[in-house]
Amino acid sequence: MSDFVNNFWSIFVIVLTLGGILFCALLLFFTGRKKVVSAEDSTTGHVWDGDLRELNNPLPRWWVWLFVITVIFGIVYLAAYPGLGSMSGKLGWSQVGAYEAEMAKAKAQIEPLYARFAGMTPEQRAEDPQAMAIGERLFMNNCAQCHGSDARGGKSFPNLTDGDWLHGGAPEQIQQTITEGRFGIMPPMAAAVGTPEDVRNLAHYVLSLSGSPNDSLRASLGKSHFTACAACHGMDGKGNQAMGAPNLTDDVWLHGWGEAAIIDIVTHGKQNQMPAQKDKLTEGQIGVLTSYVWSLSNKAGAAH
């Protein structure tokens, strides 16, 4: 009930819920007291099709008591569990609390499994078949939604198999990325570069850094404007892993390739986020997942 922004909605739910229960109770009470005049044969006098007569028998007692028990159960339940506006209930149960308890129980059960890998280096875990099988399942459940089941990523989602790393591909750097997450931002730079024509020339210079098809004349004109980008990407365009600035010379295009894509990024900037997993995965799980991700681009180092 934390979505309530003021007491009105809490009171509204309380009144509506208790009013419904009270209405059911009063309906049962008054209909039970009302006497309907019936004929000597216990019918209402209504006849259909010549011989079908409507009986006026009272409700069976078991049905009445079942109705009463249902009303009482509803009141007891609402007193014990959350259901009346912002009231938490006498038992203090909540969905969040139940979820956290289940997660704590699950973590306690799987911790012994990961204890075996705790004393291994990331490289040693990458050579352990059981660790890699577990790491693959962790990847499928937590990473494949963005990076793909084959870890080759897609537009704006890095390929984890090619050895091209924004923040570094060492096990320690991968573990930090998984644990703390990453937030990358490329600010709009068109104003710093110059005119739209200057931005277009710069795009061709950036293409030339990786040997991609480009207009050589525009590239030569755009070189001088690259100084606006050098603070992050370096004068040689090889990037800066400490800042998460991509290497522009390796022909790996995270957000799209070509003149139009580069102009769009320079003009409008770009933001990307890798969510932190420290609140979702245990330390042991992160360690195994780190080794699995590292192994994807280090097959030779992870081989037996």
From TrEMBL:
The family this protein is said to belong to: Belongs to the CcoP / FixP family.
Gene3D superfamilies to which the protein is assigned, alphabetical: 6.10.280.130, Cytochrome c-like domain (1.10.760.10)
Entry superkingdom: Bacteria
Cofactor(s) it depends on: heme c
Keywords: Cell inner membrane, Cell membrane, Electron transport, Heme, Hydrogen ion transport, Ion transport, Iron, Membrane, Metal-binding, Oxidoreductase, Repeat, Respiratory chain, Transmembrane, Transmembrane helix, Transport
PANTHER family: CBB3-TYPE CYTOCHROME C OXIDASE SUBUNIT FIXP
Annotated transmembrane regions: 7-30, 62-81
Record-listed heme c 2 binding positions: M186, C229, C232, H233
One GO term (biological process): proton transmembrane transport
Identification of the protein by name: Cbb3-type cytochrome c oxidase subunit
One Pfam short name: Cytochrome_CBB3
Pathway, per record: Energy metabolism; oxidative phosphorylation
Residues engaged in binding heme c 1: C143, C146, H147, M274
GO terms for cellular component: plasma membrane
Domain Cytochrome c: start-end pairs: 130-210, 217-297
One example GO MF annotation: oxidoreductase activity
Keyword Heme: yes
Subcellular location: Cell inner membrane
Species whose genome carries this gene: Comamonas antarctica
Quaternary assembly: Component of the cbb3-type cytochrome c oxidase.
Cofactor note: Binds 2 heme C groups per subunit.
Cited function: C-type cytochrome. Part of the cbb3-type cytochrome c oxidase complex.
